[in-house]
Amino acid sequence: MTNILSATPEGGFDLGHGMMMPDAAILRDGRVAADSFWSVAQHAAERDAIYRRCWLYMVRAEDLPKPGDYVVRDVEICGVSVLIVRGKDDVLRAFHNVCRHRGMPVADGPCGKAEAFRCPYHSWTFRLDGSLKAIPNQRCFPSLDADDLGLVPIEIDVFAGFVFINLDPQPAFSLRAFLGGIAPLLETTTLVPFTHRDSLSYEVSANWKAGLDPQYEGYHVGTVHALTIREISVTPANPFSEFRKMAFAGPHAAGWSQGNPGWRPRAERLVQSFAVQTMGALAGRVAGEGYPSAETPASLAIFPNFMIHPGAGGWFTQQHWPLTAQSHRWTAHYYYHAPVTASERLAIAQATTFARDSGMEDFMVMARQQKGLASGATESFYYGEAEMLPRHRAAVIRSVLNGAQANMRSAA
Amino acid sequence: MSANLPAAFADLEQFAHLWIGLETMESRYRARQDMPFDALKQFYDATAPRLADMMAHLDAFGSDTLPSAEARLYRVALGLVEAAQAVEFFAAARLPGAPYPHDVAVGGQAALSD
């Protein structure tokens, strides 16, 4: 059996390269090749074996509520612009955002509403279902069959309101099979009642896996976040902010934090105190609907790059999209209950601002770490046992890349 | 514009110009990076103890569209959120070690229509 939720990280998975296990040496020693964070060859291998194969989270279904609502999301590592649109039949579809005439993007991102997509180059027009509606001066294309010239579709599927795409024209596995044992944890997230959302984006000078790492462990919190979230997480009983529980399902993983239930903002922090108190009142006003519970993982890690966390006032989700071998784009959405009062709006602004700054603490560290690794000074780096989530992810990626290479050899 | 803020907060007029023109989180963050820490601290010290009063005043209006004086007061409160990051956590205008200047996009590639 593959992809079963388990307390141990050794479980098998199949990402379209055959059944495999996470790399045993990495799981055992936590030693990872330094060049996995900077080599151009590894970047290309990850593109082909992971980003062109796995289901990738794009957007929430309720973010496209009406026919004609669309988003454009770039998967830069694959050079692909993905257009996701809700059709007049209420069906969500995904397409390559590429005109069939001469390759121009037909939709301007990152989001919008359309009756149809008219190419800005020569006005070829496509319906919301992707079919070609009109070719201006069509008699000049006597041999073309408009029925064959719809936008090129991309596989799309939805689970628990999370819209995923797969750039493999014929995915080796369904979204449900891909999620496997992690699916029930994804299903227990409740983003729908949290209708107010702040979204942030930042380009980080570090490999995408370096971007994920701080979300995968609490070990760094006491050091990197000494000025901000350390006191929310670190306690005398848990000085290194270790997870109280970890679980693994195929390539995915989750970690449950111990937290600091006694934490309150310091009294002299007047603005944080006001915001936290107001956020608590907002929670009381909506009777706690949909809030993460003690059983909610602090980090729910959907391979390869999607994270879901309980957040101040609700939830937040984030992704780390590879750009180059040494850079990535961070995107994050913070979900809150809809504010009614000015105080509630201000509390939300404080929560997002605080999250932005504590995120920057991570980004600064990663950018410096990236230089250190890319200097070639060391051949490897280490994840400890409290860093089992990133260790597991590194072991999964190692096996996937080995397996993909073996497949290529056997096919040759 | 002689009266920027509601009369009860006239004593904060001297700080209003810092923030009332800044409509976005990005612009407030950039302003914070550009402001001397002492100026942020002075603003914080004068304003933070008034925050509960300011917000109680604004909450009485109870809608998204505030009268212009109240809208300016809310903008000052949002400025205080930004200044408070500097004062309450970093004891510096900029995050120690952060590139200057930098912007964290609101929306950007993650943007969604509302």
Protein traits:
heterodimer, A: alpha+beta, Naphthalene 1,2-dioxygenase Alpha Subunit, Chain A, domain 1, Rieske Iron-sulfur Protein, seven-stranded antiparallel beta sheet, 10 helices, B: mainly alpha, 5 helices
Write a structural description.
The complex is a heterodimer of chains A (412) and B (114). With 412 residues, chain A is α+β, with helices and mostly antiparallel strands. Chain A has two domains: 13-53 and 182-411, Alpha-Beta Complex (Naphthalene 1,2-dioxygenase Alpha Subunit, Chain A, domain 1); 57-166, Rieske Iron-sulfur Protein (3-layer Sandwich), CATH 2.102.10. Chain A is 28% helix and 27% strand. In chain A, the strands form five sheets. In chain A, strands 4-13-12-7-6-5-8 form a seven-stranded antiparallel β-sheet. In chain A, a hairpin with a 6-residue loop joins strand 9 and strand 10 (125-126). Chain A is globular, with a radius of gyration of 22 Å. The radius of gyration of chain B is 15 Å and the shape is globular. The termini of chain B are far apart. Chain B has one domain (10-91). The relative contact order of chain B is 0.20. The A-B interface holds A 59, 63, 69, 71, 73-74, 109-113, 197-202, 227-228, 268-272, 274-275, 278, 321, 329, 331-333, 340-343, 345-346, 349-350, 352-354, 356-357, 359-361, 364, 368 and B 25, 29, 44, 48-49, 51-52, 55-56, 58-59, 61-62, 66, 74, 77-78, 80-82, 84-85, 88-90, 95, 97-99, 102, 104-113.
